[in-house]
Amino acid sequence: MLRFFGMSIGWMAGMFLFTGCTPEEFSPFDGARAFSETEALVQISPRDAGTANGRIAAIHLETRLKALGYKTVIDTFLEKTPAGELFFSNVLGRLPGKTDRLIILASHFDTKAGISDDFQGANDSGSSSGVLLELARVLAQRAPYETEFLVAFFDGEECATKYGPTDGLHGSRHLAQKIATGGGADKVEAMILLDMVGDKDLNITTPRNCTQELVLELFSAAKSIGVRPKFSLAKGSILDDHVPFLLAGMPAIDVIDFEYGSEPGLNDYWHTTNDTMDKISVESLQIVGDVVFRMVENLQ
Ligand SMILES: [Zn+2]
Question: Looking at CB atoms within 10 Å, which of 1, 91, 109, 145 has the fewest?
């Protein structure tokens, strides 16, 4: 009986060695950490572009990236908006690679202006910023990769009245133009945008206006870790921070769940004071983080 017991333990240990794997081995991405990062950013709310809180949020994100070992800069620039000229602050962090090929990982961090002093933007733009910081952590731990990584937090994604050349997408347009005029567009392997990725009822619907190869990479990464049903192709296009990169000739994809409400088909949490931390989950952040991590490793 005793011997049998000993063999059982040995057999079980063997099973664990051959078929088991710890969560860390499966993916180093930690959804709970991403949730905490989201919570910390959401403490700074609202964080509209051009406001003191917006600037505080930018400094907070830069401090976090610095602590993770990134070379950082806050790129501040002045642009026209329907509300007059405003200062915007893109937060950028670089992780050197073995080659000059580049992957850009991005999220916006500003909140939609004029909703309410209570507006938190937990999902839009807290969740994607939290996932991005956690991705930045795991990539820094495993660096150097073949590609360099540019982690970009965009200011001014939200429009004041209506999207146009001087309203909305300020940060992404600014960075895409900077890369293109500096002759760096050809070196960009992928621009991967995260937006609204924390909804408890996660359904990533990648818009049609994304680079097809990157959509296939995303779906293949999702399939390989068993979460493919959470990812599909949207019926239409979405104007988001990936668009300036597409227009400048860079491969780009928007990882977004653009249905955020109390019932399927409703979007009643979006851009309302209902966009709070209780609507997002560690599990959803974990899924998106795992998939994007797998995707960028596959792109090496
Ligand atoms: Zn928004």
Answer: 1
CB count, 10 Å around CB of 298?
A: 12
Centroid of ligand 1 to alpha carbon of 254 (angstroms)? 14
Determine which helix (DSSP H) or strand (DSSP E) holds 229, and give its type and residue range.
none
Alpha carbon distances (Å) from 134 to 1, 64, 106: 48, 10, 12
Which secondary-structure segment (H or E) carries 117?
A: none
Write down the CATH superfamily of domain 27-298.
Zn peptidases (3.40.630.10)
pLDDT digits (tens, 9 = 90+) for 237-255: 999 999 999 999 999 999 9
pLDDT over threshold 90, residue 7: no
d(CA 280, CA 285): 8
Determine the distance separating the centroid of ligand 1 and the alpha carbon of 274, expressed in angstroms.
Answer: 13
Q: How far is the CA of 160 from the centre of ligand 1 (A)?
A: 11
Q: How far is the CA of 157 from the centre of ligand 1 (A)?
A: 8
Residues facing residue 252 across a β-bridge: 191
At 8, the pLDDT band (50, 70, 90 cuts) reads very low
Confidence at residue 38, expressed as pLDDT on a 0 to 100 scale: 98
CA of 109 to the centre of ligand 1 (A): 10
Cα 48 to ligand 1 centroid, rounded to whole Å = 11
Across the chain, what does the average pLDDT equal?
93
Domain boundaries, the chain: 27-298
**How far apart are the CA of 261 and the centre of ligand 1, in A?**
14
111 CA from centroid of ligand 1 (Å): 7
At residue 108, what are phi and psi to the nearest 5 degrees? Answer: -90, 160
Ligand 1 center to residue 183 CA distance, Å? 31
Residue 90: both structure tokens together: 């893109």
40 CA → ligand 1 middle, Å: 19
Count of CB atoms within 10 A of residue 220's CB?
14
